Amino acid sequence: MTSLSLYTKIETLPPELKEEAKNFIEYLVEKTKKKKSESKIKKPVFGSLKGKIHLSEDFDAPLDEF
C-alpha cells in the first residue's frame, strides 16, 4: 500500500475516526521505537564469567557406566 492510497483512505474517514487512526499510528510508532531499543543486544565482554563457572575435579574422569 502506498502512502498516497493510505492518505486517500484516511481523508474519507469522519473526524472522530481520523483521530482514532492518528492515535493508532502514534501507538505503532512508539511500539516500533521500543522494539528497536530492546533489540540492541549487548555483546558479552571476554572473561566476564571468569570465576562464576566451576567444574568438579573428576570432570574428565572415565564414567563407570561405559
TrEMBL record:
<feature type="domain" description="DUF2281">
    <location>
        <begin position="6"/>
        <end position="66"/>
    </location>
</feature>
<dbReference type="InterPro" id="IPR018739">
    <property type="entry name" value="DUF2281"/>
</dbReference>
<dbReference type="Pfam" id="PF10047">
    <property type="entry name" value="DUF2281"/>
</dbReference>
<protein>
    <recommendedName>
        <fullName>DUF2281 domain-containing protein</fullName>
    </recommendedName>
</protein>
